[in-house]
Amino acid sequence: MKKKPHRHAGLGRQKDIFTRFAQFTAWAAGQPPTFLMAFASVILWALTGPLFEYSETWQLVINTGTTIVTFLMVFLVQNTQNRDTRALHIKLDELIRATEGGHTVLLDLEELSEKDLKAITDKYEAIARKSRELLHKGETDTHVPDIDLE
Questions:
Q1: First CA to last CA across the chain, in angstroms?
Q2: CA-CA distance, 84 to 19, in Å (whole number)?
């Protein structure tokens, strides 16, 4: 008997070129050798100051270089952060969905207005306060209160 393929079996791990490049660059930028290269570049630039008589061109080299690198890195890091955040939201949504008694109304909270988020936050903060009071009295805080989120 053939085993039925998992319903998500068609989801591949293919990434486009930009995504692979952005993730690799963001990873590489956070590595110690990359920091050491950047640090060495600044030291080398500083040491060449007397050679170039601290000219405007000498100053422009470091200013232009760091500006270009910073400008490009903002987009690469933001791309990686956006992907990671979306993936994390999906994983958390799945945990809520799969947990018996979980409030599926909490799925996709990031799409709600600030007012709605504040209202839900207030309700959870009230539960936390009540739980701390119970713990202070020597009781347990493992109850699962029902929350009216409407």
A1: 48
A2: 12
